[in-house]
Write a structure and sequence with these properties.
This protein is α+β, with helices and mostly antiparallel strands and 225 residues long. The longest helix has 16 residues. It is built from nine helices and seven strands, in the order E-H-H-H-E-E-H-H-H-E-H-E-H-E-H-E. It has one domain: Gcn5-related N-acetyltransferase (GNAT) (Aminopeptidase, 3-Layer(aba) Sandwich). Helix 1 packs across helix 3. Helices cover 38% and strands 23% of the residues. The chain is globular. Strand 2 and strand 3 form a beta hairpin. It has a seven-stranded mixed beta sheet. 37% of the residues are buried.
Length: 225
């Protein structure tokens, strides 16, 4: 495998199964828990079903839409993906869009489960910066890791954002504080840590694959090199 054999393209609705795998895989990181499932008291199979349904809505402004994803193909098979959008480009924060989808598609008992641990969830919250490119839900199939696909996807997303939103100068991403391999990889790309949360709740690892959240950022021009 070499980089010339990979093709990056816009995701379509046909890619939704891989995109859902990407969202849940990226969410779990190097841990054993995917918050998209655990916070709502869902199994992975249930979370997969509901997120798949949400993604047919094609709502802009968060990762739960094929519109924001690019995928990398190898021999006509999708092997990696990541999402990107400009935070609050339409004045609506991504968490608001995400919450609206949860309210519409998840069963009442799942929403009630999330509300029952709202204090814990709030201890993990970080605010994304308006007017920045948000890189989210990066996932590369294990057999294709170490090929530079993450940086290639980030660069392709940066090109699109720079073309459509020329005033955007900063790219950010969010990861879990415990995901040291990812943090190290992002630092090698040039990302710097800017803020984090650490939850003191003893049950945090039942619902999240880390004790806190971390935002890292880089000047957009440095991803275009």
């Amino acid at each position: 495998m070499n980089n010339s054999n990979y093709h990056i393209r816009q995701a379509t609705e046909n890619d939704i199964p891989f995109l859902v795998k990407t969202i849940l895989g990226a969410d779990a990181g190097n841990g054993q828990v995917a918050s998209y499932a655990a916070v709502f008291g869902l199994s992975i199979a249930e979370a997969t079903q509901y997120i798949s349904e949400m993604m047919t809505e094609e709502m802009e402004g968060c990762e739960l839409s094929p519109l924001h994803f690019l995928v990398a193909e190898y021999e006509n098979e999708v092997v990696a993906a990541t999402a990107a959008w400009v935070e609050e480009s339409d004045g609506i924060a991504s968490w608001v869009v995400r919450s609206a989808l949860f309210q519409e598609y998840l069963p009442a008992e799942a929403i009630e489960h999330a509300q029952s641990i709202s204090e814990l969830a709030q201890s993990m919250v970080l605010k994304r910066s308006p007017g920045t490119m948000q890189l989210e839900s990066l996932f590369v199939e294990p057999a294709h890791r170490g090929k530079g696909l993450a940086l290639k996807l980030f660069a392709a997303q940066s090109e699109l954002i720079s073309k459509n939103f020329p005033d955007v100068k900063i790219a950010q991403l969010m990861t879990y504080t415990d995901n040291l391999p990812a943090i190290g990889a992002y630092e090698k790309m040039g990302f710097s840590k800017i803020r984090e949360t650490i939850s003191s709740d003893p049950n945090v690892l039942k619902y999240y694959p880390g004790h806190g959240m971390l935002i890292m950022e880089i000047e957009l021009k440095n991803l275009l090199k």
